[in-house]
């Protein structure tokens, strides 16, 4: 029956790797669980057999991660099975701390609306500025000195 010889915590290499070694004859199938559910392997997370010796039944490999983030933190369980039996072992994967002060899966809270008082003060200031500029233009136009050269403005 299959036996899990080694299952270590994730280590950073060129890609992150959860190293494992399994033994079994016939060669066991390898599956992974992430936090208790089946791990869908793909382009960024996949099982890679590093070394297979022809005169041995031991498989050495890695569960490889390409640029994992805090979302990949969790419990990884290695499941091995062949016709003679099965085995399972778990390890905690910690790749990086959560960079946010909130959970990115939760909706972002809405900003509080400005109070009516703040809005009315802003409108009053804008009206005062427009009135002041209008008065200044009228005063400059009416009370400006006449040109020395007789050119009308």
UniProtKB/TrEMBL annotation:
Keywords: Membrane, Transmembrane, Transmembrane helix. This is NTRK1 factor. The lineage of its organism: Eukaryota, Metazoa, Chordata, Craniata, Vertebrata. Residues 21-91 form the Immunoglobulin I-set domain. It comes from the Eukaryota. Coiled coil: none annotated. It comes from Steatornis caripensis (Oilbird). The chain crosses the membrane at residues 119-140. Residues 119-139 form the Tyrosine kinase receptor A transmembrane domain. The keyword Transmembrane applies.
